[in-house]
Design a protein that fits this description.
37% helix; alpha/beta; single chain; 11 helices; 335 residues; seven-stranded mixed β-sheet; five-stranded mixed β-sheet
């Protein structure tokens, strides 16, 4: 990690001094930046704040993601492919999830639109449904709850753990079980898994599951067409969503250029600093050089065989269904 607190006048004279009012900087993002510092790739300083916990800190950020989901490219490459796979393989999900009482634990629930597919299907099977949306964003959970309430289902679970990161899933599962009986169907859709180190998150989810319970994952695959993968992320809608992280550090949009690359089996989305910038906050100064890169998002991609092999490390029964172009997968995992 590089050092970046420099107080000598000769070190700062070439920096555009950016006086940032206290209320303009998000302290959580700033502290994450300080904690991580930067690394060097050749002569380029690379700052990495790619943590999905930082994407939905404000209602504006959360709504920007929902706007991204509505964009033509995102609808085509993620939403529609996932929905088509769900509809095509819903019968397999129903067979795996046995019982008259089902708790749908929607991890990273967003606005709840995909959970609707399962609630309506299980309703036709005369299964009693309890819906538990889990998200780091209160804005998202509220959206999901309001959407599902309109379906007139058996019960929507509302408690403090609804607003949670994924490290607390075991507590969530235990709270659900303590209230009433029923098996859990865990949903991890929308390419959410790709934003995490896969082994850590799969271990966390598996630890929260009981034997016989099911996890359904939707995730993008590396189908060897790197150019198309990069192109799908390089859009104004993605830019408008992720720029919020850096404007909350005090940057202005004009200070930055957006970029996308595919390296080490993952997509990296980053902004390049166009001029020397100094940000002052909490009594600390951070100096960005012209050409510094700030990674704000990563998305891991695996080919089908690699993806299934990783899932087999954690689950006894795994089925992986893919889109026609092998660019998206739906994985049905039973513990």
């Amino acid at each position: 990690m590089g050092g970046f607190f420099m107080e000598q006048k000769e070190k700062t004279k070439n920096f555009k001094k950016q006086i940032v009012p206290e209320g303009k900087v998000n302290d959580l993002i700033f502290k994450e930046l300080i904690k991580r510092g930067y690394s060097l790739r050749g002569n380029t300083r690379v700052w990495n704040i790619a943590d999905s916990k930082l994407w939905y800190l404000t209602p504006a950020q959360a709504q920007a993601f929902l706007d991204l989901e509505k964009s033509t490219d995102y609808q085509k490459e993620v939403i529609q492919k996932e929905i088509d796979l769900i509809n095509k393989n819903m019968g397999e999900v129903v067979k795996k999830v046995e019982g008259e009482n089902i708790n749908i634990v929607d991890i990273g629930c967003g606005d709840g639109k995909k959970a609707v597919l399962f609630i309506e299907k299980f309703g036709l099977e005369h299964v009693k449904i309890r819906y538990c949306p889990i998200d780091i964003s209160n804005y998202m959970v509220t959206k999901a709850i309001n959407r599902i309430k309109k379906l007139n289902i058996e019960e929507i679970i509302e408690f403090q753990w609804n607003i949670s990161d994924f490290e607390n899933l075991e507590n969530v599962a235990n709270l659900i079980k303590s209230q009433k009986s029923g098996k859990n169907l865990f949903l991890l859709l929308g390419n959410t898994l790709g934003n995490f180190e896969i082994n850590e998150l799969l271990y966390e989810i598996r630890s929260s599951m009981e034997c016989g319970e099911v996890l359904l994952i939707g995730n993008g695959l590396n189908n060897a067409n790197v150019e198309d993968i990069v192109k799908s992320y390089n859009s104004s809608d993605v830019y408008n969503f992720l720029i919020h992280l850096l404007t909350q550090l005090g940057f202005e949009a004009g200070d930055l250029d957006f970029g996308v690359r595919f390296e080490n089996s993952r997509v990296e989305l980053f902004y390049t600093v166009k001029d020397n910038v100094k940000i002052s906050f909490l009594g600390k100064n951070v100096y960005f050089n012209k050409g510094d890169q700030i990674i704000v998002s990563v998305s891991y991609k695996y080919d089908k065989d690699e993806f299934k092999s990783l899932l087999n490390l954690y689950f006894d029964d795994v089925d992986v269904f893919t889109s026609k172009d092998e660019s998206y997968a739906l994985a049905l995992c039973k513990k």
